[in-house]
Amino acid sequence: MGIRHKIFQLILLCFVTSVAAPAAWSQDDELVRAQEHYKLGRKFYQTGQTERAIEELYNALSVEEVYFDAQMLLAQSLLTAKRPREAVAMLRGVDAIERGKVSYQKLLGKAYYQANKLREASISLNYAIAEASRPDPELYYYHGLVELRRGNTRNAIHDARRSLSISRRYPPARKLLSDAYLMAKDMPRAARQLAIYLNYVRSPEEATTMRARLKALRSLSRAKSEKSVTTSFIHPQILNVPKPLYTAQARRNRIEGTVKVEVLLGSDGVIQQVILVQGLGFGLDEETIQAATGISFKPGENNGKPVSVWMRILFPFMFTPDDEKPINDKSRIAGLITK
To answer: What structural domains does the chain harbor?
Structure first.
């Protein structure tokens, strides 16, 4: 009887093994396939082929749904492709055990910032700052960007300085500091920090853009410090403000917020310069600048003579199917102008 029982157990074990082995092999095969897609996606991302990287990483996750490295790289690729809503959705699907990692919260903070979800971005970045094993200049830089977009210029300046105290050779913090000083209307400091940042720029295209911006900042600095305005000064009268296009990319990501620009209203009745003060990305900054150049106005006067005057103007963007007619109602125009 004992021998029969042992033979039966042996037969049963062989049967179970024959059934379970293919399943285990199948799981191993799926993991290998997912890893192959991940490695290919990483290669594409590193060589600047972002869309192909996204495709391969989605393939990896279709095979292996819970794959932290692939999820993180896919989210980063989506941010590079300016698809932050997808990046946030991807990161929300990460396993709960992984969400406490600094790298995860840092990337999530970046995604929220790009999507203009500023409260959520601040929470994630503050968590990463508190939990990081050592100070990270990029964390303070991104937190400063969030604060600047929220209009907290003092906090943005503090974060930029904190970033530079960690690494003096972290150029983005110089640009952030310049932008924060511009927002605070401290034009000399804004120009000085931008000049330092320009020393680190290697792209010829960006260098050209930054030099033009620096020239405009210095002009704005001189205009703000002039003492020649008299009691007979008359402010420019804005007659018409073109409405900038709400781009397809911004619409796809449902971006809302305000773009702020400084505009030089020329004595000749022509917009002479436009400086971006605070942007939203997704093509909205460029559309705003183009719209600002089309503002029609009556020049300001000083002692009865036309003069050029700088003015800060706000361009709000809302996710609505509103029309794109120019703004010419006096009460609405007044709401776009800040002192």
So the answer is: 27-223 (1.25.40.10), 237-338 (3.30.2420.10)
